[in-house]
Amino acid sequence: MSLAVDEIRSQFPALARTINGHPAIYFDGPGGTQVPQRVIDRMNDYLVNHNANIHGSFATTRETDQMLHDARVTFADFFGCDWDEVAFGHNATTINFKLSQALLRDLQPGDEIIITDIDHETNRGPWLLLKERGLVVNSIRLDPDTLTLDQEDYRAQLSPKTKVVALNYASNAVGTITDVRDMIRQAHAVGAVTVVDAVHYALHGAIDVRTLDTDYLFCSAYKFFGPHVGILYARKSALDKLRTLRVAPQDPEPPYKFETGTLNHEGIAGAAEAVEFIAEIGRTWGDDRDAALVPYTGRRKAVVAGMRAIDAYEQPLARYFREQLRLIDGLRLYGPHEGVPCTSTIAFTLEGISPADIAHQLSEKGIFVWDGHFFATRLIECLGLTGSGGLLRIGLAPYNTRTEIDRTLAEINALAPSRPH
C-alpha cells in the first residue's frame, strides 16, 4: 500500500503555515523534520502530568523512571537491540564527544583512528581533536565523481594499529548510503572499535544494529519527527568496558553510565512517540507481503515496515525531482550515480547564482531549503565548492508531495540563466 499523503500531512500542524501568501513547503528535512501533533501532545502530557527528576518516592518521579525505561524499550525496537543498550544525550555531536573522550582513556599515542571525507563534522571533529593527545587520525578519501568512499583507500589504511573506525551511514549533504556493514566487518578483523553516524540515515532506512554488528551507533530524534534529543546504541559488551565520563554517584551500569546529569525528560518522551508514529505508518501502510519483514514481530516489525513504506514513497519522488532538475540549463546535481544507494536528498548548484541566493529567493515563495556546507565541510572542500557557497540541498519527507516538487521546479527554472536560441 502506498502512503496516503493527505492523512500523513494532516498530522503535522506546521504544514498549515503560509509565507507571503504561499503555502509553506518544508524541504528542509535533512536539517530536521517537522513534528506530528502526537509528539507535541506527548511532550505536553509529560510536562503537565509527570514532570520530575528521577529515583524518588512520589508519583511523578516514579512515572518519570517508568517513562525513561519505556523509551529505552521503544528505541530498542527502533535499533533492533536490547533496552539496556540504549542511552540518551543532548544531541549526536555531544554524544560523540563523550564517546571519543571515553575511548581515549584506553588509547595510547601512536594508535590510529579512521574517519571519512564524506562525514558530517559530528563524526570527524571529536576524533580529529584526539590528535592533540598523540593519536593518528586518517580519513578515507571521497571519490568526487561517484561521491562514494574509496574502499581501496580504506583497506590500505586498516592495520593492527587501527583502534577506532568512525563511519558515515548516509551523507547528510548528498545522500550517499555507504555499505557500513562490510566496512565494520573489516574493522573488527583488525580489532578496531566501530562507531556509526546514522543521523541522516535514520529517517530513510530501517536500522538493524545486530546485522551491522557495530559497537556504537548514534542518531538524533529531530531528524525523524521528534524533538532535539540524541540517542546512542552501545553494544552492551562494549559499554561494559568503556570508562565513561561521569560523576561518582552516577549509576555505573549500562546504559546509565553513559548519561551525565539530568536528561531532557520531555524530549525523550517525545522522541519515543516519534518512533510510535513511524510504527503506526508501518501498521497502516506497510506491505504485509514484504519478505524483509518476516524476521520481525510486534513493534519492531511495525517500525521496519514504517521505514520501508516511507522510503518506498520518497524514492520515486526523488527520482522524478532529479530527472526534472537535469533538464535545467546550468544546473549540476551532486550525488551518487543512479542505482547506487541514496536517500531522497538532492543537492545541486546553479550557474550564475549562489546557493545562498537561491535559498533566499525560494524562501520568499515559502519554499524552505538549505544552502552551504551543512557541517559536511570536508566533503564540500573535496568538491571544490567552499569558496562558492557550497550546495543547495533539498530533502524529502513523507509529508512532501509531487505538487510541491512541481511548484519548486517552476521557481528554480525561473532562476536559471536564460540561454540564447
Comma- or semicolon-separated keywords:
single chain, 421 residues, alpha/beta, Aspartate Aminotransferase, domain 1, Aspartate Aminotransferase, domain 2, 2 domains, seven-stranded mixed beta sheet, four-stranded antiparallel beta sheet, 14 helices, 17 strands, 38% helix, globular
Tally of structural domains: 2
What is the typical, i.e. mean, pLDDT? 97
User: What is the structural class?
Assistant: alpha/beta
Specify the biggest β-sheet.
7 strands, mixed
Task: Say which CATH homologous superfamily of the largest domain is assigned.
Answer: Type I PLP-dependent aspartate aminotransferase-like (Major domain)
* Terminal residue distance: 46 Å
CA-based shape: globular
Q: What is CATH's topology name of the largest domain?
A: Aspartate Aminotransferase, domain 2
**Per DSSP, what share of the residues sits in E-state strands of 2 or more residues?**
15-25%
Description:
By secondary structure, this protein is of the alpha/beta class. It folds into two domains: 5-35 and 301-414, Aspartate Aminotransferase, domain 1 (Alpha-Beta Complex); 40-275, Type I PLP-dependent aspartate aminotransferase-like (Major domain) (Aspartate Aminotransferase, domain 2), CATH 3.40.640. 38% of the residues lie in helices and 16% in strands. The chain has 14 helices and 17 strands. The protein has a seven-stranded mixed sheet with strand order 4-12-11-10-9-5-6, sandwiched between helices. Helix 2 packs antiparallel against helix 10 (265-285). It is globular, with a radius of gyration of 22 Å. The protein starts with a helix and ends in a 6-residue tail after the last helix.
